[in-house]
Amino acid sequence: MIHKLKSEIAHFKAQSHNFKVLTLTNLIYSIVLPVIDIFVAAYVMRSSNDPVKVVVYQLTIYTGIPLTFLINGWLLNRFPIKVLYSLGMVLSAISMMIMMSLTTLDITGIGIAGIVMGMSFGFYWANRDFLALATTNDGNRNYYYGLETFFYTIIAVVIPVMIGWFIEGLAGTGDAKLAYKIVTGIVFVITLAASVMCFTGRFTNPISKKFIYFKFDPYWYRLMFLAVLKGLVQGFLVTAPAMLIMLLLGKEGALGTAQSVGAVFAAILMYIIGRKTGPQHRIYVFGTGLVLFTIAALINGILFNETGVILFMLFLLLAKPLLDLAYFPIQFSVIDILTKKEKRSEFAYILNHEAGLYIGRLTGAGTFLLLAYYFSNEVALRYAIIIVAVLQLSSYWVARGIIKKGKIMNEGLELGEKSLAETVNPSHSIA
C-alpha cells in the first residue's frame, strides 16, 4: 500500500511545473466550492423560503458568466492570465459578502450578488479551462480530471459536514446569519491563498488573436449541441440539491451529511478511473454518468421524501464527477483538432462553448420556473429533474459521434502534416 502511494506521488511529481501548480491552486479553491454551490443557495432558501428566488439567483449567475467570458477575452490582451484567474476566485467571496450585507433578500439584491458571482465564475472558468487545455494533453487529461475529482470529492466529505453543523449550531442560538458571515470571511481568506499559489505558476496568455467568430467548422456544432445538453442539467443541478434538502430535510446539518455520505468511495473510484482510463474509454465513462444521473432523478421523483433526497445525493456523487471526467477531455480534444484545422485561438472556442452552456442553463432553469409558476414548487422540484435527465440521455449518442468523427479528422490532419513535411523535405521521405 505504501509502495503504491509512493508510486502515485512520484507520478504526480513527474508532471510539468504548471500542471502541479494548476492542480494545487484548484485544490485550495475547491475548499470553498461546496460553500458557493450549496450553502449560498441554502442561505437564500432559509432567508426567503422561496425556491423561485433561488432559481432567480442562479439565472443571474448564468447571465454574468458568458458576459465575463467575453470581457476576459479582451482583458487577456492587457493582463497576465493568472491575475484574471485569481480575480475570479476572490470575486466569489466578494459576492457572498454582498449577499450577507443585504438586510432583506429582495430580487434586486439577489440579482446583484448573482451577477457578481457570475463574474467570478466567468473569470475563473474561462482562464481555468484555457490553462487546463494548455497544461495537459490528450494522453494525461483523464489523469488530470481524475486527480481533481479525487480532491474535490474528498473535500466534499469534510467541508459540507463542518459548515452545515456549524451553521445549524449557531442557528440554534438564533444567529444563523452570523454563522454565514463567519463562513464568508473564511472563504475570502481561502480564495487569497489560492491566488498566491496561482502566482507561482509560469503560465502564458493565449496568443493574441481574434476570438469572436460566428461561423465554425460543422464538427464544432456537434460539441455545441452537447454543451446545450450539459447546460440543461447545470441550470437546475447547482441549486436543486440545496432546495430539496432544505424543503424535505429542513436543516443545513442534514445537508452537509447527505453531501458527505459515500464521498470517500466516490473519490477513490474517480481517481482510479482517471488514472487507468484513456481516450478510448471516455464514452463508457460518460454513458455511465448519464445512466446514474437518470436513476437519481427517477428516485427523487418517485419517492420525493427524506430517503429519496439521500439516495439522490448518493447517485449524484458518482454521476456528476463521471460526467465531468469524460466531458472536459472530449471538449478539449475537439478544440485541439479545430485549432489546427481553422488556425484560431483556443480561447475563441472556449468563449463560444460558453454560449452553448448558457442556452442550456437558461432552458433548464426556465423549465423549473414554468413548472413552479403554472403548477407548484413541489411539482417543479419533483419533475423538472426527470425531464432534463431524460433529455440529457441523448448526450450519449452525440458524444459517441463526436469521438468517432474526431478520430477521422485527427488522422486526416496527421496525414496532411506528414505530406507537408515530405514536400518540404523530400529527402526524408526517400530515406
From TrEMBL:
Q: Could you identify this protein by its name?
A: Major facilitator superfamily MFS_1
Presence of keyword Transmembrane helix: yes
Please give the start and end residues of each transmembrane region: 21-44, 56-76, 83-101, 107-126, 147-167, 179-199, 220-248, 254-274, 283-303, 309-334, 355-375, 381-399
Q: Which organism is it from?
A: Pedobacter heparinus (strain ATCC 13125 / DSM 2366 / CIP 104194 / JCM 7457 / NBRC 12017 / NCIMB 9290 / NRRL B-14731 / HIM 762-3)
- Keyword annotations from UniProtKB, A to Z: Membrane, Transmembrane, Transmembrane helix
Which InterPro entries does UniProt cross-reference here? MFS_trans_sf
Q: Domain of life of the organism in this record?
A: Bacteria
